[in-house]
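User: Sequence recovery, please. Input:
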């Protein structure tokens, strides 16, 4: 079992917890994966005149991108995240009659999705780097505790991506939007594996700082103009 902190050494450089680093890298990777496949689901305003089932579909459509990012933060594999999202979608539809409209739909959906994540892990528990269920539950709790911050980070990410050099964007896309490994990227570029890993750490740290600065500016819009 690889220690959780060892998976994200860049967290120390940024002065953040490994769990926060995990969630941010997951948002970044999910953003790249979704963008490479044509974006996501258009969000619409709820229409109170619709039937309960129609409103449920609307709420799900509005939360689908956030829900996928949540699932991805727990499974850290784009294909697996899509598989779990599909199963969670089915489970949510079956449970729609139990949803309390006064509750937060996203948090309720995440509770259902977590059950599907744990079921998926039990069925496919072959990855030596899999974390135990206690840590998965901790990650899930932390993600929801900072859900609003994660939404702001997801919103800020595209603009920060645009500020990267073309080479850095290509490297991130190759790493997170395709099925090739870091070793294959290093071979394709003719660089040592350690150099590619160092470049990815540098890019992720740069993105994190850019995103946090953007959030801070949005929170205090007048301070950036002085």
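Assistant: Recovered sequence (226 residues):
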């Amino acid at each position: 079992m690889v220690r959780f902190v060892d998976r994200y050494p860049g967290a120390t450089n940024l002065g953040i917890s490994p769990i926060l680093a995990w969630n941010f890298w997951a948002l970044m990777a999910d953003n790249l994966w979704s963008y490479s496949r044509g974006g996501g689901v258009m969000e619409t305003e709820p229409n109170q005149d619709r039937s309960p089932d129609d409103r449920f579909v609307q709420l799900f459509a509005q939360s689908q991108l956030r829900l996928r990012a949540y699932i991805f933060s727990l499974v850290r594999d784009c294909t697996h995240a899509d598989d779990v999202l599909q199963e969670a979608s089915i489970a949510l539809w079956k449970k729609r009659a139990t949803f309390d409209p006064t509750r937060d739909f996203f948090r309720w959906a995440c509770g259902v999705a977590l059950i599907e994540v744990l079921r998926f892990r039990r069925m496919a528990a072959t990855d030596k780097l899999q974390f135990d269920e206690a840590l998965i539950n901790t990650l899930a709790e932390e993600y929801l505790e900072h859900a609003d911050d994660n939404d702001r980070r997801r919103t800020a990410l595209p603009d920060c991506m645009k500020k990267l050099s073309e080479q850095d964007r290509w490297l991130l896309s190759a790493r997170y939007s395709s099925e090739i490994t870091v070793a294959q990227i290093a071979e394709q570029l003719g660089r040592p594996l350690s150099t590619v890993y160092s470049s990815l750490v540098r890019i992720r740290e740069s993105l994190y700082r850019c995103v946090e600065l953007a959030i801070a500016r949005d929170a205090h819009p007048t301070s950036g103009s002085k």
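The mean pLDDT is 77.
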